[in-house]
Amino acid sequence: MEEQEFDVIVSDMRMPEMDGAEFLAQSCEISPNSRRILLTGYADQESTVRAINQGQVHQYLTKPWDNEQLRQTVEAEWI
After folding, report:
1. By three-state DSSP, how is residue 10 classified?
2. Which pLDDT band, with edges at 50, 70 and 90, does 72 fall under?
3. How far is CA 4 from CA 7, 8, 31, 34, 36, in A?
4. Are 39 and 10 in contact (CB under 8 A)?
5. Residues 32/25, Cβ–Cβ less than 8 Å
6. Which residues pair with 35 in a beta bridge?
7. Considering the entire predicted model, what is its pTM?
8. Which of 10, 59, 70, 76 is most buried when burial is the number of CB atoms within 10 A of its CB?
């Protein structure tokens, strides 16, 4: 991300070395103009809210997601 700008960053909430909330929070510093989308299977609202707040998530989708909905979310215009 430090070498190239991305319009959209999609992250899963559960990842091995850091969770999606931490990853997206770090991405805000490196790529503040990117739109961030979180994929989560968590039923834990606290984790999802933390990701939205810390990672400045623009939208989240629950797993399993619908491929068409994910495609439309990624391609959607962002204001």
Report:
1. strand
2. very high
3. 10, 12, 9, 11, 16
4. yes
5. no
6. 8
7. 0.83
8. 10
